[in-house]
Backbone:
């Protein structure tokens, strides 16, 4: 097992400093960008500056700390162990949620807040039973136990849950007996007094006094920001509604996760990644607006659980140049593009490359004619060759799937979307070293009451140590 020596921030010191004259924050916003480290924040920063929108709010917060992310058994953490560290102040094994390495339950800052009479909200852009939100209320040694986690969610008594649905069915539960006993997971949530909201209009119409809230906009993650059609609320809208619903004499603790930053990182999809970072930043701005109205008793903290993809700002093909502004030409995620190409294949089995050119142009903004030296979105000969080769592979693979090419023995996945993604990253000067998590530290920034505690070089567990001290 990997041994961890905690870079401790003593809870007693926090209490001595922050509780002087009753100075602990009444309102706490904790934002977590899943898979978001310095490269993701700076890619979005440069894109925002190039577009005239200025610096990211999360990067302009006055206090900052580099934050170590390793888990109890690996330098490279997964989201469950990282969330447990951030929420509960305990290093644990990868895939464990809310338990220590021996499987014993540990409690989170959100639970401490709830026990102190503070209202608690959990907000995410992925399923509410996913690893990061689960770290704040669940106690499972398997992050995949979606049904067990949903039971923990309902039993937590937290006041507000918003995001995708539960992602629960008997097949993804490790506790079939409990499933049979309790019946449908949503009904169990309802039995605990939660009002289940299923549409954006119903959600935005919620008013303080409506009781405990749970959203079921979907049974999976919400749409990537780049693909959103407006039918689902944004992260900013969910945070704003959480603050509205939870505001009161007791104060609140809100954890809000930009969960799909991580998913786009796994896909090495730069444009999709930065759009979700910007969506997280828009939610941070909501918190800062709230803070402007309550300047003396609000704390806003932004961090990441780990880095995903090994993103770098710099690629050999562009030398010392970066072209973040080119990312604006991509209009959909690689996943959405692949769905469009698949639909085109199904509609026309003898699909030609000329048939998919308009889809490629729409999705990525690539141009097939012109001078690549004068217009960076014009495909070079080498780039076009790679894209055509990927398409030719996909034709053969598609025919094998519909049993028209039984002798196919090539790679058993579509390659066109991935190749276009690589070309886009290279054109912008973005590099990727992995399709997984890395051990890179993340940046934690803060503003407001007790924000001075988030400075220097800290462990992710110190975030929980600081926040628990507000309530104990």
Residues:
């Amino acid at each position: 097992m990997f041994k961890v020596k905690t870079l401790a921030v003593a809870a007693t010191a926090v209490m001595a400093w922050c509780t002087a004259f009753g100075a602990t924050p009444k309102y706490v916003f904790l934002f977590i960008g899943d898979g978001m480290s310095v490269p993701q924040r700076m890619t979005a920063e440069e894109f925002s500056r190039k577009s005239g929108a200025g610096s990211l709010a999360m990067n302009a917060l006055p206090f900052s700390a580099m934050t170590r992310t390793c888990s109890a058994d690996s330098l490279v953490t997964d989201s469950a162990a990282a969330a447990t560290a951030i929420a509960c102040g305990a290093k644990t094994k990868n895939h464990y949620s809310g338990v220590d390495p021996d499987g014993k339950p540990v409690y989170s800052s959100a639970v401490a807040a709830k026990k102190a009479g503070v209202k608690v909200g959990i907000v995410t852009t992925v399923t509410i039973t996913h690893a990061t939100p689960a770290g704040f209320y669940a106690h499972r040694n398997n992050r995949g136990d979606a049904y067990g986690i949903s039971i923990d969610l309902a039993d937590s008594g937290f006041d507000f849950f918003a995001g995708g649905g539960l992602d629960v069915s008997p097949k993804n539960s490790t506790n079939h007996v409990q499933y049979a006993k309790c019946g449908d997971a949503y009904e169990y949530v309802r039995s605990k007094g939660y009002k289940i909201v299923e549409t954006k209009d119903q959600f935005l119409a919620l008013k303080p006094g409506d009781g405990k809230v749970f959203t079921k906009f979907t049974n999976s993650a919400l749409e990537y920001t780049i693909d959103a059609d407006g039918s689902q609320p944004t992260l900013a809208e969910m945070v704003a509604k959480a603050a509205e619903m939870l505001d009161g004499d007791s104060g609140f603790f809100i954890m809000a996760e930009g969960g799909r930053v991580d998913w786009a990182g796994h896909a090495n999809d730069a444009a999709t990644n930065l759009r979700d970072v910007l969506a997280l930043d828009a939610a941070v701005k909501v918190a800062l607006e709230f803070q402007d109205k309550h300047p003396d008793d609000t704390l806003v903290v932004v961090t990441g659980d780990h880095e995903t993809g090994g993103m770098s700002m710099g690629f050999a093909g562009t030398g010392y140049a970066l072209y973040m502004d080119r990312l604006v030409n991509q209009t959909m995620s690689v996943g959405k593009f692949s769905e469009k190409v698949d639909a085109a294949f199904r509609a026309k089995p003898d699909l030609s490359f000329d048939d998919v050119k308009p889809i490629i142009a729409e999705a990525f903004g690539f141009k097939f004619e012109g001078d690549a030296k004068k217009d960076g979105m014009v495909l070079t000969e080498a780039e076009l060759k790679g894209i055509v080769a990927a398409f030719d592979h996909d034709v053969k693979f598609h025919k094998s799937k519909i049993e028209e090419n039984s002798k196919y023995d090539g790679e058993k996945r579509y390659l066109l979307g991935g190749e276009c993604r690589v070309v886009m990253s290279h054109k912008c000067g973005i590099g990727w070293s992995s399709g997984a998590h890395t051990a890179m530290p993340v940046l934690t920034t803060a503003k407001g009451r007790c924000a001075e505690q988030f400075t220097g070089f800290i462990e992710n567990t110190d975030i929980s140590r600081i926040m628990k001290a507000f309530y104990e």
